[in-house]
Amino acid sequence: KLQELYGFVNFIKVNFSILYEYNMKITTISMPLSAFQVVESLRRGEFNIEFTYFFFGCILHFVMPCYYSNLLMERSENFRFAIYSCGWENHHDKNIRQMLLFMLTRATEPLGIATVFTNISLDTFAEMCRQSYTIFNLMNAAWA
């Protein structure tokens, strides 16, 4: 099962890394644009539901891969700790120790989904939100 999981994560990395990168960049641009439209409509005394839904849709569209990649990274880290603390020092069989050493070596690098330039995690989402907020502040200062 572990080999299947590594294969599946590798499949996602190979096939979707460029799409996740585009998703991250487009979301970084579309979030402040839609937030600015919502704020401008509120300044006019209106409430633009379309841009509000679009804004929250942008957030959900990018937070889901970040959340699940972060969860995958945490679980793989917990798996590595579980292997190390399984009581391997009490087993004197050389084959079992070699298998545990192989599993520990394989689990040294935590699993996670990566884009072209960075690993996707909740830290990536926070950085994307920070950049979006910076763009929103620039737009708000220039046109408000």
> How do the helices and strands follow one another from N- to C-terminus?
HHHH
Shape by Cα distribution: elongated
Number of helices: 4
> Strand pairing plus helix content: what structural class?
mainly alpha
Q: What is the percentage of strand-forming residues?
A: under 5%
Folded structure, characterized:
GO terms for molecular function: odorant binding; olfactory receptor activity. It is found in: Cell membrane. One of its GO terms (biological process) is signal transduction. The chain has 144 residues and is mostly helical. It has one domain (2-127). It has helices at residues 2-43, 49-84, 94-106, 122-143. It is elongated. It starts with a helix and ends with a helix. 19% of the residues are buried.
SSE inventory with pairings:
Layout: H1 2-43, H2 49-84, H3 94-106, H4 122-143
Helix pairs in contact: 1-2, 1-4, 2-4
GO molecular function, one term: odorant binding
Membrane topology: Multi-pass membrane protein
Protein name: Odorant receptor 30
Give a brief outline of the structure.
The chain is mainly alpha-helical and 144 residues long. It has helices at residues 2-43, 49-84, 94-106, 122-143.
Quick tags:
144 residues; 4 helices; elongated; transmembrane; transducer; receptor; Odorant receptor 30; cell membrane
